[in-house]
Specification:
By secondary structure, the protein is mainly alpha-helical. It is elongated, with a radius of gyration of 22 Å. The N and C termini lie far apart (about 55 Å). The chain is built from 10 helices and no strands. Helix 4 packs across helix 5 and helix 7 packs antiparallel against helix 8. It folds into 2 domains: about 100 residues, no CATH class; about 90 residues, no CATH class.
């Protein structure tokens, strides 16, 4: 199966493969009146944050890619070489990005942005972050659960597969509180903003267990 993100990634690689192609693409950007000072960038496929930045950037250039397809006859041909004949809206086809790919990317980017924002929040160096780890871990669990439930009820096999993989990886590292670093809990409890909430939580836990 050729993921929509892969089709867009391959399109970016094609354009960036030579200075000539990049010059043609720049002209297409001007013709499309894209309001962006930068150009398309490629991601590190194994890093979610990198993929988010790529998609967040390339989304602005949808019309420029459409223009580029008209100016470079090799664009469509080269991208279709390794796959079957293109079929409208088929997710398993090779080739240039389709209209449905851009819609998919818009939705997928919105989901990845949650992780991007969370990562930036907990990796800050100019403020204390230890007290926020537990809250952020819980937020990720909520997001994955919500996304998985939504996807599993739908027909989008790509989203479903990805959601289940991410959920499984999350459960491996953060699914069992007994295996988590206890300092994460201590830091959260010592945060003055949440002292009352934690006291109520432990009181309820004590009542339930007694």
């Amino acid at each position: 199966m050729c993921h929509p993100v892969n089709r867009i990634r391959h399109a970016i690689k094609f354009v960036r493969a030579s200075p000539t192609r990049l010059d043609v693409f720049k002209k297409c950007v001007q013709l499309s009146k894209v309001a962006s000072k930068g150009l398309i960038n490629i991601d590190v496929a194994t890093r979610w944050n990198s993929t988010f930045l790529m998609l967040d950037n390339v989304e602005k250039f949808e019309r420029a890619f459409e223009q580029y397809a008209l100016h470079d006859p090799n664009y469509k041909t080269e991208l279709e070489k390794t796959g079957p004949e293109p079929k409208p809206d088929a997710l398993d086809q090779q080739g240039p990005p389709t209209q449905s790919d851009w819609v998919y990317v818009c939705e997928f980017k919105q989901f990845l942005q949650h992780f991007y924002d969370l990562t930036n929040k907990v990796s800050g160096t100019k403020y204390v972050t230890a007290n926020t780890f537990l809250e952020e871990i819980a937020d990720v669990n909520f997001l994955l659960g919500e996304w998985s439930d939504h996807v599993i009820c739908g027909d989008d096999e790509i989203f479903k597969c990805m959601a289940l993989k991410m959920k499984a990886k999350y459960e491996k590292y953060w699914g069992d509180p007994e295996k988590m670093n206890k300092y994460i809990f201590i830091a959260a409890i010592l945060d003055p903003r949440y002292v009352v909430d934690w006291l109520l939580f432990f009181c309820q836990l004590y009542v339930c267990c007694s």
